[in-house]
């Protein structure tokens, strides 16, 4: 037994000795989260005053009363494949609310259709044209199957028309539509679509595949196997909420399928980095 005059510091006393150091460490970590420029930031809107080639998807979808979901991708990009698969899992729950389109990131040297280059080379340009031509000729009621066609197509050689034909057949695309899509990809129509998409990419200053637009607004980026610049979230529930909020704002009423989709994909807002840092600091103060 220790003499009565001997004092053994308790746990709280020992922690108190290190409290100043812990506070400095917390401030340092919080500063890294708030100030470190880990990824480039892009404007959420197209540059002012720049025309959008061949009309925006928002305009085309709005004509049918649907919200445009635009994925800016490259046919040989792993992040594009992930993004398309991610959206294919829940967009089928919103057949009367959302309309999906893909645009293709490429470089347009001038205003001619021949001056388009793709980041992964000529084969990617061929794959882009095949996908764009399917999109251009696919009946509106088959739009819900479009991402499934792309998912199938990305598993083979994207530059081969025969592989795309197999994928269209698997999704039940009519033979007449298949013929039109393949003729488009091998002719001037495909070149024109590729150039128009490259112009739209240039006008909107999109750099990363996959960049997500919903209702004409940039919402999120999937690049380097991670999501970023997604202020409203990157989960299925987050995207469904954005789509359904835009639809309600446009129509004035909530679509029944939105309620079902949101119930199946609950949305929980992620705490901001600043809020998380503040809670961390308070734990040691």
Describe what is shown at a glance.
By secondary structure, the protein is α+β, with helices and mostly antiparallel strands. The chain is built from eleven helices and seven strands.
Features:
50% helix, 7 strands, alpha+beta, 285 residues
H/E series: HHEHEEEHHHHHEEEHHH
Return residue spans where pLDDT drops below 50 for at least 5 consecutive residues.
Answer: 1-8, 33-59, 272-281
Radius of gyration: 25 Å
Strand content: 5-15%
Helix residue percentage = 40-55%
The global form is globular
Q: Helix count, per DSSP?
A: 11
Q: Provide the residue-averaged pLDDT.
A: 81
Identify the strand order in the major beta sheet.
2-1-5-6-7
Distance N terminus to C terminus? 35 Å
Largest sheet properties: 5 strands, mixed
- Tell me how many strands there are: 7
Structural class: alpha+beta
